[in-house]
Design a protein that fits this description.
about 220 residues, mainly beta, 2 domains, 4-stranded antiparallel β-sheet
């Protein structure tokens, strides 16, 4: 089992997912984190994904050395901005998410680590490379984007880790989303876009909706 040791503060993080502060923390791509009262800088020079928990904020990104080499890291900032912690990763961080009161990180090749105390340990969750988690309530639903037209063949998909279903999903930037108990999956062919409504329990297509124009909020689509 892989253990990734902390480099900085020897504090033991206790990630309680019960009592939540009323003020949300904000983060920026330069690695800064702010509340209404103050702004602090983390060790990340490039941050691109985040997950807020009641105890604080997790950031995924890179530390960059003097030669411009990127090193993947996760940084944590407590809710009152008084404490920080960081962990080096063996691979690029794709996403940080919470499932069953546990904080997880998905690495770019599909490995998932869970935070146990102050260490990230290998978990039993397995993802496809380049997966993005779109729902993590009673099940975990993840999606992979379609390859760029000239990059490779194949198509994107969405799949359930526990209910074991899979559907094709032709998307690249605007990711699938779960709304009112249904997974909304795009199927784009040229200029035509069909939005499919998927039952999250079994992966069955419930309805299809052809979109005449671009829609920024798929949850607003009336099926």
């Amino acid at each position: 089992m892989k253990n990734l040791k902390t480099l900085l503060l020897p504090l033991l993080l206790s990630i309680s997912l019960v009592a939540c502060g009323s003020d949300r923390l904000k983060w920026n791509y330069d690695g800064t984190v702010s509340s209404e009262e103050r702004v602090i800088k983390t060790s990340l020079q490039n941050a691109y994904t985040a997950q807020e928990t009641p105890s604080g904020l997790f950031l995924g990104g890179f530390k960059i050395d003097d030669q411009g080499i990127n090193y993947p890291y996760i940084a944590y900032v407590s809710r009152d901005l008084s404490q920080q912690q960081e962990w080096p990763m063996d691979d690029m961080v794709s996403q940080i998410f919470v499932f069953d009161d546990q904080v997880y990180v998905v690495l770019s090749e599909g490995e998932a680590l869970s935070l146990q105390g102050a260490e990230w340990n290998s978990s039993d969750l397995k993802f496809k490379p380049d997966s993005i988690v779109v729902w993590s309530d009673k099940d975990i639903i993840a999606c992979t984007p379609s390859p760029l037209p000239k990059a490779s063949t194949g198509q994107g998909s969405c799949y359930s880790l526990f209910n074991r279903w899979k559907v094709s999903a032709n998307w690249q930037t605007q990711k699938p989303i779960v709304c009112e108990g249904y997974l909304l999956v795009p199927d784009r062919h040229g200029s035509e876009m069909v939005l499919r409504q998927i039952d999250i329990t079994n992966g069955d297509v419930v309805k299809n909706k052809t979109l005449k124009k671009e829609v920024s909020d798929w949850c607003s689509v009336d099926f």
